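Worked example

This section walks through a single chain of length 124. The input is the sequence exactly as stored; nothing has been trimmed or padded.
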Amino acid sequence: MTRDAIQSIDQQWNMAYQTNDHASLAHILADDWTAIDARGKRVTKAAILDQVTHVPWPFTNAQFQTISSWQGNDVAVVTGRLTGRGQVGDQEVAVDQYYTRIYVVRDKRWQAVATQVTAVQPDV
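Given that input, the structure is written out below as tokens.
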């Protein structure tokens, strides 16, 4: 599978978040997918799909940036950064985080199996 394929599926993941597309994200994430979020909490596939289904994307100007990607025969790693600002009710919200996503080939297609998210700390 080509490098373009992994970049395409990673972009599909980003778009699924922004459009609250439960079906696309469910297809990308393996059933045993797990993540550690920016607060250090474990997140399962069921939990993230519930969030995507019930919590509208709050960021009006979010930007995903791929920093690097590596691909072997049946495994790929994508590192990126998400920044954005938005509104939840009367409260302004912001996001600035790095993420690492690990994909493997299963049933002849790429699926995400693990994710690590780290909040970007401001320079002091």
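What to look for: The mean pLDDT is 92.
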